[in-house]
Amino acid sequence: MQRELVEKISLTQLFILVSAFLFGSAIVVGIGGEAKQDSWIAVIVACLLSIIPVWFYTFLLSRIPEKNLFEIMEIVLGKVISKVFILLYILYFFYVSARVLRDFGELIVGDMLVNTPIEVISITFMLFVAYILYLGLEVLGRFSEIYAPYLMGSIFAIGILLLFSRELHVKNVMPILPEGIGPVIGTVFPELITFPFGELVAFMMILPYASKVRYAGKTTIFALIVSGLILAYSSFVQIATLGPEAKLRSKFPLLTATGEISLWDFIERVDLIIIFVVMFGILVKVSIFFYGGLKGLELVFNRPYRAFIYPMAMIIAFMSIIISKNFAEHISEGISMVPWIIHFPFQFGIPLLLFPFVLWKAKVLKSEGKKR
Amino acid sequence: MVTIAFVFILISSTLLSILLDMHLYNLSFFQTLHFSLTLDAGTRETIVFTALITGLFASFFLDYRMSKKESREKRS
């Protein structure tokens, strides 16, 4: 007899998924560079401000319990209108998946497998993601549990190894806030608030599958704070090692910083460990966005989401290549347009639009329940 | 249904990418379409196009299998 594939994750797994999701491509491309030596402050500010939208997402989910964002849309807006919004979200989730995959592809072909076509990296990676999701969300959760200690451990180890290598120069971080709070605020809005923190909107598709739904919101917020602090630490290490100008110029600042590690002429080329760690973060991020999109397709086309996995995985691999001709275009699009045109409407616009309707529908459902 | 979803998602995500490129480069729709989807000589973009075609065939196959299963269930 075939075992039923389970769709439940524990709170620990949820915590790890949120953390890995936030590290994902944020660790690869480096965040908050525009705030120069204060980028670590910008990351902390953005993290603390992001508690508000994340709390809002969990509040929205708690009004109609055990339903994900798309199911709530269907209940609140009706079958026809909700389908339009769901299709838009599917596009958003797949598009962001493709962007994250491109980040990873560029990292791999730029620093590790220089003779391998980026297309091969994208396709192979998507086949791996497709296999994990085919086995279910629980497998993704368990996979994350195994790799999380390596992720956290490596990020902390980089700082310590750089310190021992005498490459960590605190003078690079000084002076603090030389131009006031302006550049920090300018970096937080819209860059940091939408990437990576606002992207947690994708977890509106995952939270209802937590084993203890009541605590899922608190766990997500706790994971957000912890990850924000670790990202700020990583940003601090990058600036202290490279300096603000070199960090801004570098394609992959953490990787460049790690390249500086050299201990006793023995511990060197630690950047390969970073690529391994980054791969895990990217895998979780792509999987969560991909899963969100697949659940949307399940609802719209009334077929199990597993049926869509392979064809959609190939579309994402294809999209990751055609979205931009080169890395410069990819980053330029990501900074100048994606936060405003793509992220803002889906992370804040539509959930806010949905808010009064959800409150009204929750009230109606509650009064109907009392009558019975 | 899988094929319909495949075609719909492929067209709309390509359109999204083209619209962003139009905005970025100040080009017309057809110029951007040509710029985005033309296979440049010497690149290995054909690999990803091939993968996309396998995705399309997979969706045909999945639809066929599901319709077969449905008709079998109806009969029994």
Automatic annotation (TrEMBL), chain A:
<feature type="transmembrane region" description="Helical">
    <location>
        <begin position="305"/>
        <end position="328"/>
    </location>
</feature>
<dbReference type="GO" id="GO:0016020">
    <property type="term" value="C:membrane"/>
</dbReference>
<feature type="transmembrane region" description="Helical">
    <location>
        <begin position="184"/>
        <end position="209"/>
    </location>
</feature>
<protein>
    <submittedName>
        <fullName>Spore germination protein KB</fullName>
    </submittedName>
</protein>
<keyword id="KW-0813">Transport</keyword>
<keyword id="KW-0812">Transmembrane</keyword>
<feature type="transmembrane region" description="Helical">
    <location>
        <begin position="39"/>
        <end position="60"/>
    </location>
</feature>
<dbReference type="Pfam" id="PF03845">
    <property type="entry name" value="Spore_permease"/>
</dbReference>
<feature type="transmembrane region" description="Helical">
    <location>
        <begin position="12"/>
        <end position="33"/>
    </location>
</feature>
<feature type="transmembrane region" description="Helical">
    <location>
        <begin position="146"/>
        <end position="164"/>
    </location>
</feature>
<keyword id="KW-0309">Germination</keyword>
<comment type="similarity">
    <text>Belongs to the amino acid-polyamine-organocation (APC) superfamily. Spore germination protein (SGP) (TC 2.A.3.9) family.</text>
</comment>
<feature type="transmembrane region" description="Helical">
    <location>
        <begin position="118"/>
        <end position="137"/>
    </location>
</feature>
<feature type="transmembrane region" description="Helical">
    <location>
        <begin position="80"/>
        <end position="98"/>
    </location>
</feature>
<keyword id="KW-0472">Membrane</keyword>
<dbReference type="InterPro" id="IPR004761">
    <property type="entry name" value="Spore_GerAB"/>
</dbReference>
<feature type="transmembrane region" description="Helical">
    <location>
        <begin position="340"/>
        <end position="362"/>
    </location>
</feature>
<feature type="transmembrane region" description="Helical">
    <location>
        <begin position="221"/>
        <end position="243"/>
    </location>
</feature>
<dbReference type="GO" id="GO:0009847">
    <property type="term" value="P:spore germination"/>
</dbReference>
<keyword id="KW-1133">Transmembrane helix</keyword>
<feature type="transmembrane region" description="Helical">
    <location>
        <begin position="272"/>
        <end position="293"/>
    </location>
</feature>
Automatic annotation (TrEMBL), chain B:
<keyword id="KW-1133">Transmembrane helix</keyword>
<keyword id="KW-0812">Transmembrane</keyword>
<feature type="transmembrane region" description="Helical">
    <location>
        <begin position="7"/>
        <end position="27"/>
    </location>
</feature>
<protein>
    <submittedName>
        <fullName>Uncharacterized protein</fullName>
    </submittedName>
</protein>
<feature type="transmembrane region" description="Helical">
    <location>
        <begin position="47"/>
        <end position="66"/>
    </location>
</feature>
<keyword id="KW-0472">Membrane</keyword>
